[in-house]
Amino acid sequence: MTLKKKIAISFSIAFSILFGIAMLIIYYASVDFRNDQFRQRLVDKLDYISHYIANTPSFDRESYKTYFQDIEDGLFYEDVIILDKHKKLIFSTVKDKTITWNQAIINRLDNEKRIFYKQDQYEILGKYYLINKQAYYLLVKAQDYSGNEKLDHLAIVLTILFLLSTLLIWIFSYNLILRLLHPLDRLKKDITQINASKLTNPVKYGGNTDEIAVLTQAFNTMLKRLSSAFESQKEFNSSASHELRTPLARMSFQLENLRHQQQLDEDVSHVLDNIAKETLHLSEVTNSLMLLSKFDSATLQTTYQEERIDEIIFTAYEKVAKAFPDLQLDFSIKGIADPKLTLVCSTQLIEIAFVNLFKNAALYSYHPEVSVVIHESSTQLKVLVTNHGAALSSTDQKRIFDAFSRGENAAETTGSGLGLRIVKRIMDSHQASVEYKANTQHSSHTFTLRFPKSTTENSDPLPIQ
């Protein structure tokens, strides 16, 4: 999850929680207010009834209706019960049904004087009065239809308001964070585009004092230091390799002249052969270091062209065969019926890659033989280079493409340990891949090179039967 999404989600969740708490506070505050208001109306009702009793010694239904006909108390489904000092019913507004009351509540009125409680959808208030020196127990039962309806309406409004506000704040917060962090996205884009050839290009940012500006300045400072160190390393590798090539070439030429002199005895000739091999090895190491330095500094700008992979393979094999004349090549093509075998690449670099693979096969195989199989499809060219030789340990297999890495099977063979590393770098420069797989049962070593290709054919090619 990206940083802006985390910030937007965290902000939205925090707002939703706070807004939800505020909505709950408003709702329950309204509930308490409604309860207090309705209780006060019940109290006022009982106070009116007490005045009615005091002013009407012999009260009945007709006088009760007359007395309260002009009083608007807003009570729905109202019932009134009046008990005397012996807690016996002396008046009730209930019609056509059995009159009941909670005797325990009546008994509690002797001490508590006023009790409020709920029964189903009704709210009941009981109160003790002393009227004209006579004790009375008054009960009023009613529904707050209007108040409950308002609370239900308030709950719906608050719920809709909460959902809409939450949705809007989520959309608003994400777009706000997206806008605020847009410079960070630009910075990330600029950083990801930096490679070895762009170390001297600073990252640009329009802000002056914010945190992203400080981060950009720190990154540019680091970039300058890296560029300086990288250029120093590149210059040293290039200069050292270049300076070594000339004396090495002279040494090889002079040694070749000495070896062809007839008056040399066998021991001296053998020593000269060893020196020539070591000189050749040192020359190969120098050339490999120089090639790696060019890759690292990205100064090797080759114009890629459409080339045939089979021609490159045969050219590479011919070069290796001059040094290893016993090396045999088994070549085959598989895949579609009409293979083109073309890819856009640098002939020089791909040729170097196959030369290194063939030299690796010639040096470390039981028999000087290498198998090359090309599989062509509509999306890629796959080349399998296989030889048979001593098995590698699991540790050696993991670091086979590392620079200066040599396996246990190369203890008696001269080499720099850079050949397969160069193959890997060449494949990476072509957005291609190389993989190594060993088959211990058949003592085989297979390098799989995959080259992506774009096809313009209108129909899918037919596979070879």
SSE blueprint and pairings:
Elements: H1 3-55, H2 61-68, E1 76-83, E2 89-92, H3 103-112, E3 114-119, E4 122-131, E5 134-143, H4 145-180, H5 182-192, H6 211-259, H7 266-297, E6 305-308, H8 309-323, E7 328-335, E8 342-345, H9 347-364, E9 369-376, E10 380-388, H10 394-398, H11 419-429, E11 433-439, E12 444-452
Parallel strand pairs: 7-9
Antiparallel strand pairs: 1-2, 1-5, 3-4, 4-5, 6-8, 9-10, 10-12, 11-12
Helix pairs in contact: 1-4, 6-7, 8-9, 9-11
GO molecular function: ATP binding; phosphorelay sensor kinase activity
Keywords: ATP-binding, Cell membrane, Kinase, Membrane, Nucleotide-binding, Phosphoprotein, Transferase, Transmembrane, Transmembrane helix, Two-component regulatory system
GO cellular component, one term: plasma membrane
Task: Sum this structure up briefly.
It contains 11 helices and 12 strands. It is an alpha+beta fold and 465 residues long.
